[in-house]
User: What shape does this take?
Amino acid sequence: LKTLRLILGDQLNHQHSWFNSETDSTVYVMMEIRQETDYVVHHIQKVLGFFSSMRNFAEFLKERGHELIYFKINDKDNEQDLEKILKRLISERKFEKFEYQFPDEYRLDKQLKKICKELTIETETFDTEHFFTERGDLEKFFKGKKQLTMEYFYRDMRKKHNILMVDSNNPEGGKWNFDKSNRKKWKGEPEIPHERGFRKDVSAILKEINKAGIKTLGGVNEKSFNWPTSREDALSVLNYFCKNLLVHFGDFQDAMHTNEAYLFHSRLSFSLNTKMLNPREVIDSVVDYYYEHKDEIDISQVEGFVRQILGWREYMRGIYWKEMPGYRRSNKLRNQNDLPPFYWDAKTKMNCLHHSIKNSLENAYAHHIQRLMVTGNYALLTQTHPDEVDKWYLGIYIDAIEWVEITNTRGMSQFADGGIVATKPYVSSGSYINKMSNYCKDCHYNVHKKIEEDACPFNSLYWNFLDSNREKFSKNQRMNMMMSLLDKKDSEEMKSIRKRAASIIEHPSDF
Ligand code: FAD
Ligand code: SF4
Assistant: This one.
């Protein structure tokens, strides 16, 4: 049958079995469309990253001898809409069958199901051959359980896939989780190797994006685009990570520093989320490297990394498919405030937020603890509506695709799901940020003060947040310690805390 096969922008899987053989009757289609560039305002580097990677993937397909129809953003016959393009191609070119790989986003899943329902030709769906788990595996694993604890899922994955195991039941290093040893502050040593960056000239694609009038955020150096956009690039970032960064990955996983945007983080999320890299090959490379260099690399560094990909990444995907579409509307704490305007320009006197947001605007990247304990923490403490928070995270990061963005943002960071992903809200006063970074040293505010003019805003906001949610948290055992500390505060102190927190929330641009 004459078949049309769709490849979405995050389905750049070179190793997919679709591409093992070419047939005269199969034609692939890829498209740069406004439907995808406009559902949220994306960072310019995200749009550039996707378009460049898609175009490189198109080259790969052509070199392999596959027939491909590729719609560039400004092509005259580009109708900018998935449904319109597919239906027109099928009718004009008389395709007899339509095939697609399961999308990772709910909205595309719904749209493609609707399109197929309306087509009169045969249709078929395929796995993306990317993840360790299938969409429904997590739900099956936790069936009948009240709490969906990531740790149990992760241990099961380790056993099932025989990763970092001594034998079928015992983990390498004698422990499943070395999280507690992964909490060092970085104080200038050990030296951080420069990231495996790229200096690509993307000025031509940038011109096309501007010509199309796509609204974007953030900045880019068009002569020095710094992200992997091909399989070769992605593999070189992976190799670089194993050789140079893995050795300290776990130790400094939670560290933050004013001069270091990446520390020992891998920068692999974009390559993974576009499927240029497969999570198995990432884990295999890291684990093999560890076994070959056991005298230099501690298990805690490697376990910390494996947990992120085998554990958290697969877990978030499972939560997404279990909880969508309702998850998009969840707001259990009923937060209603706007996101402070400085999230869009980094103009704030709070040094931690300034640096974390500036990194994000300049690089389309922030590492996990900046996302969770600085920007996420502040948004939650200021009781920002999760829709606003989601919009920001979904737009600003090069790796942001809804299935992994929303579960991290609404779930892990904003506690909007009421405790599905996180058993308690990830909130802290300034002391945690001070413990893990050098931000407070040069900040306009004093991290040790609570209510004075120059007191760190996180401090009053923290107690005010607990106070505003007293009832909701009173039944949460994991909050007992925090809530009893709150109860010890006298009414005068609480009055001052509430007053300062209210002024921070009402006048975000003054801080
Ligand atoms: P590393 O620190 O080197 O970690 C290695 C890999 O582990 C990452 O590439 C990623 O694939 C995986 N990983 C690590 N943590 C997580 C996690 N919590 N969930 C899923 N995978 C994880 N990650 C995204 O890929 N897309 C997002 O849109 C996204 N949004 C986030 C929003 C918030 C509020 C928070 C707190 C986290 C978010 N994360 C997201 C998770 C994490 O912050 C990023 O994956 C990570 O910072 C990417 O940088 P890296 O590749 O250098 O990661
Ligand atoms: Fe951030 Fe407070 Fe530290 Fe300033 S003092 S950097 S606002 S935590």
